[in-house]
Design a protein that fits this description.
CATH topology of the largest domain: TIM Barrel
Number of strands: 34
Shape: globular
Number of helices: 15
Number of domains: 4
Strand content: 15-25%
Structural class: alpha+beta
CATH class of the largest domain: Alpha Beta
CATH architecture of the largest domain: Alpha-Beta Barrel
Strand order of the largest sheet: 23-22-21-20-17-12-25-24
CATH superfamily of the largest domain: Glycosidases
Helix content: 10-25%
Largest sheet: 8 strands, parallel
């Protein structure tokens, strides 16, 4: 690549007025990746060099407009057809919000996150947050989400038993048919998946190309989803080791859990709890040995009614070594952990539950410094030795607390606590809507990327809402709506957050993406679970995965998606992994596209730019100054031939691109072919319901 650095005399010469060629709007580019922000994650009170690219010798002046100040930029470097203008700022603690003013003859325009514009809008300013650093290991990392009960049963001796306890209107049940569809009220049915099962399948995950395992909650809990935590200090022995297994299960007519002595022994006996925690240490160590990371699910907005601090089920009431719960005793040391609406003790059922659910008592941090401090200890405990987990995913994080002010205070303290314990740990939050207020560098690292990935991709490729609750013909194939959504929601992110955002197609809260391809509006209780399998289109699924693996952020696979698992929204999306019945062709496809994602640096942390769009067609590029990849997506039921400029992303005007990957209605191919770039343009035929990945290899 031709890099030419300008001398001061040459830089001065650019300001001498004279004839200029036509302003090349398409050549102007900037974003917040390391080609344009150096360093990309600048330190507090350090320096940062901000850059913007223009066509060579095409503009008169460029000004950096940063925090209401105006700086004349230097023309610093020429790379091929482009000039790069630069200016170095001295930083303090203040976020730098900026855009650019460009003068080219009679033309005066601006450049912000929208591109070249005539008028500025602060909403679309670029931003650099001094001191905001996210872990490098998480940038572009391939994450695999495991809902443990449904992944693999490696140890039948720890399975939940029939009638082991009573919860939400019924007894616990052990499912003996691994392939059975989840029951509509399946919160208390268990298939037996556990951590031994995860260990047994690590070879599979490693061969798939997984770099991070994100576990749905693992802590002691009465449900299979475990978002109703019973004890934050221990992993559930039903996922780990049960070494003491005494007591009785309930009779069919019994509903009081204080008589469920088998369950009480399993989850309160310290021998079981300590053995399970020790086993979990081994699990994490083995995952780390394979070069993978571990993210835990943190549920800190609410706990469960079984929780030892509340003890609505009176499980802990008579167990040695446990204090009385807040439900049981007005004088419980945990009374202030919850908000009670009256003084009706003992056994007071009138407390604040999240969204009114009495099985999910809301934690009252404002009323208890003791609770606040305890949860901070939990936050540090699991990312510290001997457990050494690599981060947290935070459940309903924006709901925590009783005011926005307190919510932000909590997450600031949470971040400080976690980063002190493990500076390389990641903090990712579940959030719907604009997360900007939490992505200031002082709270969350990033989010589950609904608004800026899952939803735009789903609407464009399927026309379906992410729960399969609606179908929008006007959004299916609507490239303009897709890019508009990406642009608008993307302004909430800066570089550190963008590159670690969890880009999912499916998860435990939404319908499986493969099911969305059948355009059926409904849920398993209205259509039946079989309907989720009918009329699905694996070619559209492959399109989505290609986008997932070539999009900025951390591609996150929901267990079983790679094997062809279908399902409507919760609980149908929590089907078991189909061991022995996998779609092996879809698995092989995932292995290959993951390999491509990991092999090409620009797909992990490069810039992104849309370079062509029409109905049902997207073409975009991921690129660094030195490396470029073009991705073509055709969601039509027929091939399309399109022509577009590629010089705008740094590909020479006379060059050859190599097709390194292709999908179509029948499958995928890694057979390579060459396509010529002529006068900066490329013409390609994108297959029906297919994709192309085209790579520019620089000549030696």
């Amino acid at each position: 690549m031709n890099f030419e650095r300008y001398s001061k005399a040459e830089r001065d010469q650019q300001y001498i007025s004279g004839m200029r060629p036509v302003f090349k709007k398409q050549a102007v580019f900037c974003d917040m990746t390391e080609d344009y922000v150096r360093p990309a994650q600048p330190a507090l009170y350090g320096e940062v060099t901000l850059r913007i690219r223009t066509a060579h010798n095409n503009v008169d002046k460029v000004f950096l407009m940063a925090n209401d100040k105006r700086y004349l930029m230097n023309k610093d470097v020429q790379v091929g057809e482009f000039d790069y203008y630069a200016y170095t700022l001295q930083l303090d603690e203040e976020t730098v919000a900026y855009y650019f003013e460009i003068q080219a003859g009679a033309v005066k325009c601006f450049y912000d996150e929208r591109g070249v514009v005539k008028q500025v809008d602060p909403y679309y300013n670029f931003r650099v947050i001094p001191g905001f650093v996210t872990p490098d290991w998480a940038k572009g990392a391939v994450i695999y989400q495991i809902y443990v009960d449904r992944f693999c049963n490696g140890d039948p001796t720890n399975d939940v038993l029939d009638n082991e306890y009573h919860y939400i209107g019924g007894h616990s049940a052990r499912v003996t048919d691994w392939n059975k569809y989840p029951a509509q009220m399946g919160v208390r049915e268990f298939y037996g998946g556990d951590l031994q099962g995860v260990l047994d399948k690590l070879d599979y995950l490693q061969e798939l190309g997984v770099e991070v395992i994100y576990f749905n909650p693992l802590f002691v809990s009465p449900s299979n989803h475990k978002y109703d935590i019973q004890d934050y200090d221990y992993i559930d022995p039903h996922f780990g080791k049960i070494v003491m297994n005494e007591g009785k299960v309930l009779q069919d007519w019994e509903a009081e859990n204080r008589f469920s002595t088998r369950y009480i022994n399993r989850v309160t006996n310290k021998e079981n709890l300590e053995a399970t925690n020790a086993f979990f240490i081994q699990v994490v160590e083995e995952i780390h040995k394979r070069g993978m990371k571990v993210i835990l699910d943190g549920v800190f907005n609410h706990c469960g009614s079984f929780n030892k601090w509340m003890d609505r089920e009176r499980i802990y009431e008579d167990v040695e070594g446990y204090e009385k719960g807040a439900y049981v005793d007005r004088n419980s040391p945990y009374h202030s952990y919850f908000q009670f609406f009256d003084d009706n003790f003992p056994y007071n059922p009138h407390y604040d539950g999240w969204w009114g659910h009495d099985t999910l008592p809301k934690l009252n941090y404002e009323g208890s410094r003791q609770l606040y401090d305890y949860i901070m200890k939990i936050a540090a405990k699991w990312v510290s030795p001997p457990y050494n987990c690599d981060g947290w995913r935070l459940d309903v994080a924006a709901d925590l607390g009783h005011s926005p002010e307190f919510n932000h205070k909590f997450w600031k303290d949470f971040r400080s606590t976690v980063k002190r314990a493990n500076h390389n740990a990641i903090i990712l939050a579940e959030h719907y809507g604009d997360p900007r207020a939490w992505l200031s560098g002082r709270e969350w690292d990033s989010v589950m990327n609904y608004d800026n990935f899952m939803e735009p991709v789903t609407w464009f490729l399927t026309g379906m809402q992410k729960h399969s609750d609606d179908y929008r013909q006007d959004l299916l194939g609507n490239a303009g709506a897709f890019w508009g959504s990406i642009l608008h929601s993307g302004t909430a992110f800066t570089y550190p957050s963008t590159m670690v955002a969890m880009n999912q197609l499916s998860n435990h809260d939404h319908s499986r993406f493969l099911t969305r391809t059948n355009h059926k509006v409904g849920r398993s209780n209205t259509l039946g679970p079989e309907a989720a399998n009918e009329g699905v289109n694996k070619a559209v699924m492959r399109e989505a995965v290609v986008m997932q693996m070539t999009w900025p952020g951390a591609p996150t696979i929901y267990y079983g998606d790679e094997a062809g698992v279908c399902g409507f929204t919760d609980p149908d999306n929590r089907r078991t992994y189909p061991w022995g019945h996998e779609d092996q062709e879809l698995i092989d496809f995932h292995k290959e596209i993951i390999r491509i994602h990991k092999a090409h640096r620009e797909l992990k942390d490069g810039s992104i730019r849309g370079i062509y769009e029409e109905y049902n067609v997207l073409v975009y590029a991921r690129f660094h100054v030195e490396e470029q990849t073009v991705v073509c997506v055709n969601n039509n039921d027929h091939p399309v031939t399109v022509q577009f400029h590629v010089w705008e992303v740094g590909i020479p005007k006379e060059a050859v691109l190599t097709q390194i990957f292709r999908t179509d209605e029948n499958g995928y191919s890694t057979e390579q072919s060459e396509l010529p770039v002529i006068a900066g343009k490329l013409e390609v035929t994108i297959p029906k319901t297919g994709t192309l990945i085209l790579k520019h290899f620089e000549e030696a």
